């Protein structure tokens, strides 16, 4: 998250404008589209739920009417006949029983063919004598019905009808019969009707809305089902219909379902409708498609418009930035004509004024400073050439005296070596042209220089080299180390008794070349170090001009500063009585091949 924020902070102003406008439009569009889609889907679900409640209410009324018609018809047929009287008679044996049975059978036959959807009729008299009739081809559900019937329970219902569902989906209406005049129990009648008699109501519902419709009887047992999907079976197995009436949500098979339960009067029937929410909201896919399409088109148009607007806003800033970058390189300023009078235009006018003043300062100050530095550099060049053209008299005197002494005491071989090294040193110091040589050549000159001193001082001097061969091809100013090494010898050997240690090292650090000359001589105070590194302090101390080594060290420092800038030069660290370390910092520049 922080990385994204940093990228946004470091981005160009036009990118910030473009991203900001795009994000605002995207959030606004997504919010409006999401709310519209959510409200639309909610309205569809709500309206569908209300319509579902209305449908199952109509189903309840229709089923109540259909079942009541069968009950009323059976009662009217019973009331308009002499069946009550015949059932009240005790059955007799022989011929005297025949008229009673014939009347009952004729009643059954008339009742069976009263409606086409009647499949069977069963009468049980008070003495539990059974009389039944069924249509040809009808299933023998009467026998199964007799096993399920509880005659005492039917009798206790006092003429109120009870409906059963047979094993072959035949629907049975069962009710007790009572004599109208005496209200005495005379028997039980059961009428079997086709399941389609009530199932046709559910078929019409399926043409209006998808889903399973279940009709439960007063015992909460399945009576008629309009489809039996796995979800409906799961609903019944979990007895969710016993939780009461109203709306219930449940999940099955990775889908979400809504069930509506409605009970008719006296809880005679319960109508359950189970709806797949996915099927219910399938019409919203077109809404989702058009919403996403509209959002993408709007976002594309808004992005192009935002790109155009952001370009117009940042064009002046881009031009101003280009001119500022060009001005920092060559200080040549072309007047910028602002395209507007807004804050950017005012900033452009102020920049034009500032650039003109900087040009004036550059012409009056900076160029004068460059001329002064060039003159100072030429003076130093003359000093270096004069220093290169002569050797230290003290060094030459000691060298010649040593040659003279050794000529007397020792053989010619060592004297010859000393003379050879001296000649080679003089040739290298005076013979090389140019102001820049390689580090390898400079180190070779120092080795020859120190070899002469090693012969002169013998065991009193010890030299240690810590150099990197990969840095040998780096460019260094000519005659840059000799004044430092000479200073180490003068203060490390001549002014302090004992063995002198001189260490010369070169290394690379942060892309720069570091050359270090260290000795164990007498050291120097901090004040003297400040005078050596500060030309102004050096000029105010005439007594120091007499010391040749100080002139060389100061010249080295000033020469490096002029050639490479203020970030380069000498760094001196010293402790009185312990020694001095002089570090030369130069840019690492490889010799061009």
From TrEMBL:
InterPro entries: Bact_2-comp_sensor_kinase, HAMP_dom, HATPase_C_sf, HATPase_dom, His_kinase_dom, Sig_transdc_His_kin_internal
GO function terms (MF aspect): protein histidine kinase activity
CDD domains linked: HAMP
Designated name of the protein: histidine kinase
Superkingdom assignment: Bacteria
PROSITE patterns: HAMP, HIS_KIN
Record-linked Pfam families: HAMP (PF00672), HATPase_c (PF02518), His_kinase (PF06580)
Cellular compartment(s): Cell membrane
Membrane topology label: Multi-pass membrane protein
SUPFAM superfamilies: ATPase domain of HSP90 chaperone/DNA topoisomerase II/histidine kinase (SSF55874)
């Amino acid at each position: 998250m922080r990385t994204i924020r940093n990228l946004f902070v470091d981005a160009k102003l036009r990118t910030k404008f473009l991203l900001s406008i795009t994000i605002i439009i995207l959030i606004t569009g997504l919010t409006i589209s999401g709310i519209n889609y959510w409200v639309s889907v909610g309205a569809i679900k709500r309206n569908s739920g209300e319509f579902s409640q209305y449908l199952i209410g109509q189903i309840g009324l229709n089923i109540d009417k259909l079942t009541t018609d069968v009950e009323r018809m059976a009662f009217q047929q019973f009331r308009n006949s002499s069946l009550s009287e015949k059932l009240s008679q005790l059955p007799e044996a022989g011929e005297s029983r025949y008229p009673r049975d014939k009347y009952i059978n004729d009643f059954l036959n008339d009742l069976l063919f009263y409606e086409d959807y009647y499949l069977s009729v069963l009468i049980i008299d008070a003495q539990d004598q059974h009389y039944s009739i069924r249509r040809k081809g009808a299933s023998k559900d009467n026998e199964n019905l007799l096993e399920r019937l509880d005659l005492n329970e039917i009798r206790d219902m006092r003429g109120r009808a009870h409906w059963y569902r047979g094993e072959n989906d035949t629907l049975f209406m069962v009710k007790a019969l009572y004599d109208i005049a005496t209200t005495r129990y005379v028997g039980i009648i059961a009428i079997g009707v086709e399941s389609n008699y009530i199932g046709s109501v559910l078929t019409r519902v399926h043409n209006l809305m998808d889903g399973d419709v279940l009709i439960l009887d007063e015992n909460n047992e399945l009576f008629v089902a309009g489809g039996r999907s796995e979800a409906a079976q799961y609903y019944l197995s979990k007895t969710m219909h016993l939780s009461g009436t109203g709306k219930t949500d449940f999940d099955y098979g990775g889908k979400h379902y809504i069930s509506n339960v409605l009970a008719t009067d006296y809880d005679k029937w319960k109508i359950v409708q189970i709806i797949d929410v996915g099927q219910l909201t399938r019409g919203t896919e077109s809404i989702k498609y058009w919403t996403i399409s509209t959002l993408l088109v709007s976002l594309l148009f808004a992005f192009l418009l935002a790109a155009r607007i952001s370009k117009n806003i940042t064009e002046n800033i881009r031009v101003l930035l280009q001119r500022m970058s060009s001005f920092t390189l060559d200080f040549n300023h072309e007047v910028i004509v602002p395209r507007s009078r807004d804050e950017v235009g005012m900033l452009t006018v102020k920049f034009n004024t500032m650039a003109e003043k900087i040009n004036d300062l550059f012409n009056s100050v900076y160029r004068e400073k460059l001329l002064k530095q060039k003159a100072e550099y030429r003076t130093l060049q003359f000093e270096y050439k004069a220093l290169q053209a002569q050797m230290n008299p003290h060094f030459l005197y000691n060298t010649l005296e040593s040659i003279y002494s050794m000529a007397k005491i020792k053989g010619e071989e060592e004297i010859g070596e000393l003379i050879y090294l001296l000649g080679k040193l003089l040739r290298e110091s005076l013979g090389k042209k140019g102001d820049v040589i390689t580090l390898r050549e400079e180190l070779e000159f120092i080795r020859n220089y120190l070899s002469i001193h090693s012969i002169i001082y013998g065991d009193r001097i010890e030299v240690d080299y810590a150099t990197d061969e990969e840095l040998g091809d780096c460019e260094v100013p000519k005659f840059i180390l000799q004044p430092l090494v000479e200073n180490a010898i003068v203060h490390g050997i001549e002014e302090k008794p004992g063995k002198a240690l001189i260490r010369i090292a070169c290394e690379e650090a942060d892309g720069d070349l570091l050359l270090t000359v260290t000795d164990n001589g007498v050291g120097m105070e901090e004040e003297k170090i400040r005078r050596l590194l500060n030309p102004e302090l050096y000029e105010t101390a005439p007594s120091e001009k007499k010391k040749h080594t100080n002139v060389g060290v100061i010249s080295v420092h000033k020469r490096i500063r002029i050639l490479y800038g203020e970030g380069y030069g000498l760094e001196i660290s010293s402790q009185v009585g312990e020694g001095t370390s002089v570090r030369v910092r130069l840019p690492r520049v490889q010799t061009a091949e």
